[in-house]
Amino acid sequence: MVGSSPKYEPFFRYYLHPSEGTGTVISPILLKDNNYDEWVRSIRNNLRAKNKLCFIDGSLNEPDATSLDFEQWGIVNSILVAWIYNTLDVSVRSTVSLPDNVKLMWDDLHERYSLGNGPWIHELKRRISNCKQQGRPLVEYYSELKNLWDELDSYSTLPPCCCAAASIFAKEKENEKLHCFLIGLDDKKYNTVVSGLLAMDPLPFLKTTYSKVSTDERHHAVVGA
């Protein structure tokens, strides 16, 4: 029907579950004077899980007043202001006013409490470089590495791109992760499968690589049993 409100599917950026209101607490970590990095990682992770990260990272702007999404954007925006406010320690709340735009609130907190992302990004890259299997089960090694990659990616400042080079850039980035993953594997155990994967042109996707290495791990387990 013309003029009716749009319906939003679960996990869509404008969707809110009926149980989600202004009293929802999305993180057990409260922002204090000295824990901004820990707090912001928790908030970003939880908002990403709800597909609401776009409201604070600048990738979703307020729609035009004539848009069918305008009213719902305002509702979700106000809910997010409340959610973030709920994760502020009492000592911080007293210094924060409630703005009309959640991104303004987010940017203000970043400006006041962030010591800069540079040192932490450097630390993440150091951990990725030093992440090795060292006899651990493959799934444990890969999970640690993937968590580090995901956290590092969350600090990316590159704007979304739909140009022809986007797929090329994405593949190059995936290849870097593939090499990193293979380098960290136990050499003697996986030398044969790694050589075979590196001989492929183009290089396989990371998921395919993990699957093949995992199959090889199971083969070693059966043979060695």
Provide an overview of this structure.
The mean pLDDT is 90. The chain contains 9 helices and no strands. 56% of the residues lie in helices and 0% in strands. It has 225 residues and is mainly α. It starts with 35 loop residues before the first helix and ends with a helix. The protein has helices at 36-49, 70-86, 90-93, 102-113, 118-130, 138-153, 165-183, 187-198, 206-224. This is Retrotransposon Copia-like N-terminal domain-containing protein. Residues 17-64 form the Retrotransposon Copia-like N-terminal domain. It comes from Lithospermum erythrorhizon.
Uncertain stretches: none
Percentage of residues in strands: under 5%
What is the overall number of helices? 9
Helix percentage: 55-70%
* Assembly of the depicted chains: single chain
H-E order: HHHHHHHHH
Q: Characterize the overall form.
A: elongated
Number of strands: 0
* Structural class by secondary-structure content: mainly alpha
Describe the secondary structure blueprint for this structure.
Blueprint (H helix, E strand, L loop, with lengths): L35 H14 L20 H17 L3 H4 L8 H12 L4 H13 L7 H16 L11 H19 L3 H12 L7 H19 L1
